[in-house]
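[agent] plan:
  1. take the single chain provided in the ticket
  2. run structure prediction with default settings
  3. attach structure tokens to the ticket
  4. add a short note for the reviewer (M.T.)
[agent] executing step 1
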Amino acid sequence: MKRFSTIADLEEVQGPLHLAMGVFDGVHLGHQAVIGMAVEGARRSGGVAGVLTFEPHPIQILAPGQAPRRILVSWEHKERLLASFGVTVLLVLRFDETMARQSAEEFGERLFSVAALRQVVAGEDWKFGRERRGTMDLLRGLGEPHGVEVTAVPAVMLKGERISSTRLRQVLRDGNLQAASEMLGRSYTVMGTVVRGEQLGRKLGTPTANIMLGDEQLPPDGVYVVTATIGEGKETHRGVANLGVRPTVNGERRLLEVHLLDFEGDLYETGVEVCFGLRLRPEKKFKSQEELREQIRRDLKEARQLFKESKAGI
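[agent] step 2 finished; step 3 output follows
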């Protein structure tokens, strides 16, 4: 995937260019509908599908008090998802005070000056420009003289409610992974890199991979049945994960530790995508490490049985 940082950079693209616009935090089904329209347009024209998005989230500049404290997917995760949908061009515009003051007309004219641009796609209620005065109707009027099609995509509904990043964050906080998967159109996963820890899991007889995450919105602390895909999707292993602060060993930082069943190998500095299944139990402080060791054995036994019975929720 080619990544650019200014609209002018898009002149390098050999079109026709079909561009989906939005923040796409979470890349849920509503976002996928917008992205899919651009991908389909590119397929029909023999062109290129791209995504225009922003960093940081505009609300962090426009209304920092209302900004979500957690992201839904890391950038690495987002790029991998976009590539899987058929996106080959990614434009990430830095959203700052200068961009916030830019008028909708100025933004539109700059965008439509890109020679290869043939289609712009966004949600039907997408707003842009100073004081969010720009609408899809305005964008359509600006694009018409340049021969650029502007496509407004309706909201995607699930069980009578609109799918949104806000709603997705809430179900994750609640631990409702089934609802999260329905909104995402895929299993709920997080991506991170395996880093060296204190090797406490090894001392307890169950070596774990310590996953370095970003600032993602995670489900409640506890022990989960998981699968872990290593590297570029070449290997997937079953496992058990502990998400939390490890109170029995006086942990302080929230960590994601994954024990892969029947796996041997060195995963340090390797990227891993963890898919969450059933939550076996909440995190708990045990009286001793021996008591913790016995509970881990029970957790692993339960996880193996759930996988055997195809009831792991993955």
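[agent] step 4 note for reviewer: The chain has two domains: 2-162, 188-308.
[agent] ticket updated
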